[in-house]
Amino acid sequence: MGVIPSDKYDRIGILEVLEVLEVLEILLKSRKKWMDNLDAMGSSLDLMQTGLQIIWPLRPGTSKVDWCEDNYTFSPIVAELVNTVSNLLFLLLPPLLIFLFQPYGKLIQKEIHIIWILLFVIGAASAYFHATLSLLGQLLDELSILWAAIIGTTIWFPSRLLPNKLLLENRRLFRFLVAGIGLVCSVLCCIHPPFNAFALLSLVTPGMVLLYGELRRCHDSRVVRLGIRSTITWVVAIMCWINDRVFCDVWSSVQFPYLHGAWHILVCIAGYCSCVLFAYFYAVEEFPHRTLTLEYWPSPRFPELFSVPYINLNKGRLQKIV
């Protein structure tokens, strides 16, 4: 057997070392690609997590608020059908009110149409919320009500009751202050949704007290009757809301868990009637030279209870509030 030269051993060793180095290089490249893939996957996961956080409020059932009506009883895609459909009046009344209040908007206060638009938004947002029970729907519903109250305060609060001479002389400053409060409340409601109930209570309750005070100063029987009907409707609506929320078991036991739907109908009637009254009081106080009357659509011969009140600027002047 022949002897292998030593230089051949050296060449074989070098080749083996080179092969090992090539394998190591391949492994390092593979590791780098693997780490890059992990980084890409991590970025994708971060994006997915961010996306899920964004769309989570859109998902059905993400709201913690659930009313007495059983979910998905009548439809597999609508959570609370009765509570959803009962918002229909909010969608039908605003276009009619915009039409009826065209002269008022031109001659007295064009901002009144913002209120009618917000009533429509309230109905649409409430229907979306009760159809999905999503957190986004809840926030849209509550914030639209909050801003309807805020804007109503800014445009109809009596000038004689403004607490500061500066505010009395500059009503625009008063509007900015109230709007600022509304923005703060909106942010707090988004951060902590249960706060919205407190915000609404702090606005609606003084509004009802103010309405009562204005009615006491008014001597027109038609206006007073509308105020009484509006107040009674508010009381019945609130009773429906409380019963649905607190005594759900009782109403479910008699197969009628639909009082929140009744609340929608009643609060829509009470709400727009209150807006008509505030618009009337504002016009009488700020534009005493205008002639206006409280009328009912479609005809004066219709019973007031089943008619839509509005302010007519083409007839005799109402008795002035004292």
UniProtKB/TrEMBL annotation:
GO BP term, example: ceramide catabolic process
Q: This protein's superkingdom? A: Eukaryota
Q: A GO molecular function for this record?
A: metal ion binding
* Main localisation: membrane
Q: Binding positions for Zn(2+)? A: H130, H260, H264
EC number(s): the record gives: 3.5.1.-
List the InterPro entries: ACER
The residues that hold Ca(2+) are D66, W67, E69, N71, E80
Q: Which Pfam families match?
A: Ceramidase
Could you list the residue ranges that cross the membrane? 81-101, 113-131, 143-161, 173-191, 197-214, 226-242, 262-283
Its biological purpose: Hydrolyzes the sphingolipid ceramide into sphingosine and free fatty acid.
What PANTHER family does its record include? ALKALINE CERAMIDASE
Q: Which family does it belong to?
A: Belongs to the alkaline ceramidase family.
Entry protein name: Alkaline ceramidase
- Which organism does this sequence originate in? Darwinula stevensoni
